[in-house]
Structure formats: C-alpha cells, structure tokens
C-alpha cells in the first residue's frame, strides 16, 4: 500500500518535497484532479510515472510550476522550460494562472525531454490548489524547477478526484514508492483546459472549465479548433476516462423511453441524469446537477461510484448544448467511446 498523509499534517509537505527532490513519486491534489508527480528534470523519476500508469512513454506530461513572482515562481519556471513565449501566451498566463489552464510551448531542448514524451514542446501549468502550491514551493526550494504530473489514474481510466481514488489506482505500489497527500476532494473536478501556443496562434486541444469565450476575451484573438497538425494529447484520444461498465449518452427523452421500456427489468443499469428523468425500478441512480461547475466537480467520483455497484451499463443524460458544459460533455463522450 502507498503511504497516505493528510496534507495539513505539519510534516506532510516537507516529506513530499524531499521525496520529489530524491526522485520518488507523490500523489498530489490540484484544483482539477489528483496528479501523479515527479521531478520533471529527473528522467528516471519520470519513467516511474509512465511505468506506474501503464502509459505509453511518448505521451507527454504536464509540468507544474510554483506560484509567485520570485526566482522560484512560475515566470522562472517558464524561462527554464520554454524556449519562446508568444505574447498571447503570456497574456493567458497572466490572466488565468494560477488556475486550471495548461499551455503548450516550444521546449528548450536540454530540459524535460522524457516528461515531454520526446516532443519538442512542453505543457506548463501553475495550479491554484493550496496543497499543490505549497508542495511546488517547497520542492523549488530544493532545486526542483517543475513537477511533471499526469492525472493519477491508470492509463485510459477515470481520473481521480480524491486521495482514496489515487490509493485505489495504485494499490500495488509500496509506501516507499508512493506518498499520497490527502487534500480532500478537488474543487474543479475535470482536467485543465489545454491551449497549444506553438503555432503562432492559440489552438484549443482539450476543453475544461475555462471556456473558449473567456480565453478569447483575455487574449483578444479567436481560439482555433484542433486539426490534423495539432499535437496529439492522450486526454484527447477518442476513448479515455472509461469506467469498467459501458457508458452510454442519451437525451433525457431517449433515456426515459429506454427505462420505461425495461421497467422492472432494468437490471445491470445505473443512471446519471437530471431530475426530470424518473427511474421506477430501484437502479443505482445519481442526479446530475443543473449547474455545469457542480457537475464537473462530482463527475469522476460519480462514474467511479456507479461503476463500483457492478452494473454493466451506465446510462448518462447528454449534458446541455452550452459552452459552459463543453468540458463535461467532452469527458462523457470519451468515457462512452
Ligand atoms: O488538470 C490537469 O491538467 C491534470 C492535473 C494533474 O494538472 N493533469 C492532467 O494530465 O490531466 P494528463 O497527463 O492526464 O493529461 C495531460 C494532457 C495529455 O492529453 C497530454 O497529451 C497533453 O496534456 N500534453 C502535455 N504536454 C503536451 C505537449 N507537449 N504537447 C501536446 N500535448 C501535451
Ligand atoms: Mg489523464
């Protein structure tokens, strides 16, 4: 079993920072999801992330930077990892960091090659979660420029939003191999919005809770859709975030009709839908909130919980066709693919 420490424990942050500096792995709460963290400039530590996740080593990881303006803050981190920062990217950092936004920038060839999965770019983000910030700051004081951290789940599976989820994902790792900082449930709940800044204009690679409209308003230019030339991102693979049960997305009407048809025979099915959908048979059921932010916050925990009931199918109401729901809709579509 991995070692689980309450992040409020006075020794927790220091021990975790020492482990990072020594090349070991840390389960880290961020405002989006929990990350599986290692020193981004330590190739063998980063290899251990790929190994623990079962993730192909050519899938690049996001490098997390400490907050603040000092010599160990995110500006210094950006200088360390990026060879070039377009003006619109700097504006986006200033507007949304610390926060759930990742920017892909051209990489300085001599740094973080393994974390970048061999790409000539690097994904950077300064997280807003106080525990992540405290750990990044303590690690920076020990010479760690940035912390590579993919979501702390096995490859292709649902991202973790609690420390318990992380412990379940990596139950096979010993307490020497993995220290998990318990910082409670993640407030955002789905992964950061990713914007590619390597092509001279912003391209949306992965939707999140920062909407395109807010990004466009901040940087004063249109956000382009990803195309063939856009860098590959594992969170953008068609099938991802998948529970064991099969997820099916349906409109409220379709879902109601299917449930009515099955009646009491609705076995092996769990339902995640807004209150208008009525389930008569006693199936595992969670009510989808009307608010996108609240839905995002609980989404992965709900998928895990419904999956754990042992059902074969999870029927989910298609979220509203509104930009505020883009991130949630994207994750559900990938869970269903
Ligand atoms: O909210 C988040 O972003 C969380 C927390 C832990 O920060 N992290 C996360 O990491 O979601 P991960 O590895 O599960 O997803 C990172 C995504 C992947 O789809 C990866 O391909 C993409 O970022 N990415 C990272 N660096 C990249 C690069 N240089 N070029 C293109 N895509 C990149
Ligand atoms: Mg992931």
From TrEMBL:
Entry protein name: Threonylcarbamoyl-AMP synthase
Gene3D superfamilies registered for this protein in UniProt: DHBP synthase, Threonylcarbamoyl-AMP synthase, C-terminal domain
Cellular-component GO terms for this entry: cytoplasm
PANTHER family in UniProt: SUA5 (PTHR17490), THREONYLCARBAMOYL-AMP SYNTHASE (PTHR17490:SF16)
Family assignment from sequence similarity: Belongs to the SUA5 family.
Residue ranges of domain YrdC-like in the record: 10-210
Subcellular location, principal: cytoplasm
Superkingdom of this protein's organism: Bacteria
Record InterPro entries: DHBP_synth_RibB-like_a/b_dom (IPR017945), Sua5-like_dom (IPR006070), Sua5/YwlC_C (IPR038385), Sua5_C (IPR005145), T(6)A37_SUA5 (IPR010923), TC-AMP_synthase_SUA5 (IPR050156)
Task of the protein: Required for the formation of a threonylcarbamoyl group on adenosine at position 37 (t(6)A37) in tRNAs that read codons beginning with adenine.
Native source species: Hydrogenophaga taeniospiralis CCUG 15921
Entry's Gene Ontology molecular function annotations: ATP binding; double-stranded RNA binding; L-threonylcarbamoyladenylate synthase; tRNA binding
Residues the entry annotates as binding ATP: 55, 151, 159, 206, 241
Keyword terms of this UniProt record: ATP-binding, Cytoplasm, Nucleotide-binding, Nucleotidyltransferase, Transferase, tRNA processing
Keyword ATP-binding in annotation: yes
Enzyme Commission number(s): 2.7.7.87
Subcellular location: Cytoplasm
Positions in coiled-coil regions: none
GO biological process: regulation of translational fidelity; tRNA processing
């Amino acid at each position: 079993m991995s070692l689980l420490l309450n992040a409020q424990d006075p020794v927790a942050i220091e021990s975790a920072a020492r482990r990072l500096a020594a090349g070991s792995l840390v389960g880290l709460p961020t405002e989006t999801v929990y990350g599986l963290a290692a020193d981004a400039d330590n190739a063998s530590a980063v290899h251990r992330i790929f190994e623990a996740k079962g993730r192909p080593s050519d899938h690049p990881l996001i490098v997390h930077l400490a907050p603040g303006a000092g010599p160990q803050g995110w500006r210094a981190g950006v200088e360390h990892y990026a060879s070039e920062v377009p003006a619109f990217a700097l504006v986006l950092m200033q507007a949304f960091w610390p926060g759930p936004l990742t920017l892909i920038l051209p990489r300085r060839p001599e740094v973080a090659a393994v974390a970048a999965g061999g790409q000539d770019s690097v994904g950077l983000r300064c997280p807003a979660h106080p525990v992540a910030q405290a750990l990044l700051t303590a690690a920076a004081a020990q010479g760690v420029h940035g912390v590579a951290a993919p979501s702390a789940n096995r490859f292709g599976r649902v991202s973790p939003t609690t420390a318990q989820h992380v412990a379940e994902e990596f139950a096979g790792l010993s307490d020497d191999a993995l220290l998990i900082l318990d910082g409670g449930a993640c407030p955002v709940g789905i992964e950061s919005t990713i914007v590619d800044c390597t092509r001279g204009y912003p391209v949306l690679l992965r939707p999140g809770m920062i909407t395109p409209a807010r990004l466009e308003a901040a940087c004063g230019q249109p956000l382009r859709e990803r195309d063939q030339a856009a860098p590959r991102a594992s969170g953008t693979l068609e099938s991802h975030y998948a529970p064991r049960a099969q997820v099916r997305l349906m409109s409220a009407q379709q879902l109601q009709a299917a449930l009515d048809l099955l009646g009491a025979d609705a076995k092996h099915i769990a339902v995640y839908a807004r209150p208008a959908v009525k389930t008569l048979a006693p199936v595992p059921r969670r009510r989808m909130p009307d608010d996108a932010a609240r839905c995002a916050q609980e989404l992965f925990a709900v998928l895990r919980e419904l999956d754990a009931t042992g059902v074969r199918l999870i029927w989910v109401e298609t979220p509203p066709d509104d930009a505020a729901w883009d991130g949630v809709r994207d994750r559900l579509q990938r869970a269903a693919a």
